[in-house]
Write a structure and sequence with these properties.
It comes from miscellaneous Crenarchaeota group-1 archaeon SG8-32-1. Pfam families: DUF401 (PF04165). This is DUF401 family protein. This protein is about 75% helix and about 0% strand. By secondary structure, it is mainly alpha-helical. Helix 1 (about 5-25) packs antiparallel against helix 2 (about 30-45) and helix 2 (about 30-45) crosses helix 3. The radius of gyration is 20 Å and the shape is elongated. The protein starts with 6 loop residues before the first helix and ends in a 10-residue tail after the last helix.
């Protein structure tokens, strides 16, 4: 239907809708989903968008990624609820006294494991230790991402 639109225009409209939704305090996940869906509708049309959506929902690889992400997120919630994260950081603190080293070491260790959703696994650990350093959420996210990926150039399993 509207597949004649210029891809640049479609992209700009989608980014505009995304920014508008964020400005109106809509959740990030909902804003990303809505703008991606709009981009698909404007570039592929309704019928092709429905086809792609159905193919994605029954694709075994997509389903395994969805379930893996869900269960990793569930595991991180269990870590927090059972306070195993606190035990881990406390026991690590017995050997390493510097919280800055601990907060960087935790995501680096998780980064050694080639798993999907490593950020979800290391985030609760970083959160607990970063609170001791009074880091804000942006700095916590930066530390988690940076130190989880610091081993990529030298660790062959990451590829």
């Amino acid at each position: 239907m509207l597949n004649f639109l210029n891809p640049l225009i479609v992209f700009m409209v989608s980014i505009g809708v995304f920014l508008l939704l964020l400005y109106r305090k809509v959740g990030l996940g909902i804003a990303l989903t809505c703008s991606a869906f709009l981009m698909s509708l404007l570039s592929l049309g309704i019928s092709q968008t429905a086809t792609v959506l159905m193919e994605t929902l029954v694709d075994p690889i997509s389903l395994s990624l969805i379930f893996a992400s869900f269960f990793i997120m569930l595991m991180s919630v269990f870590y927090k609820e059972t306070e195993l994260v606190n035990d881990l950081t406390r026991s690590l603190g017995r050997y390493i006294k510097n919280s800055k080293i601990i907060v960087s070491l935790l995501p680096a260790i998780i980064g050694l494991m080639p798993v999907a959703g490593g950020a979800l696994m290391s985030a609760p650990m970083v959160d607990v230790e970063a609170d001791k350093l009074e880091l804000d959420n942006a700095k916590k996210a930066f530390v988690n991402i940076w130190f989880r990926h610091v081993v990529i150039p030298v660790y062959p399993v990451t590829q």
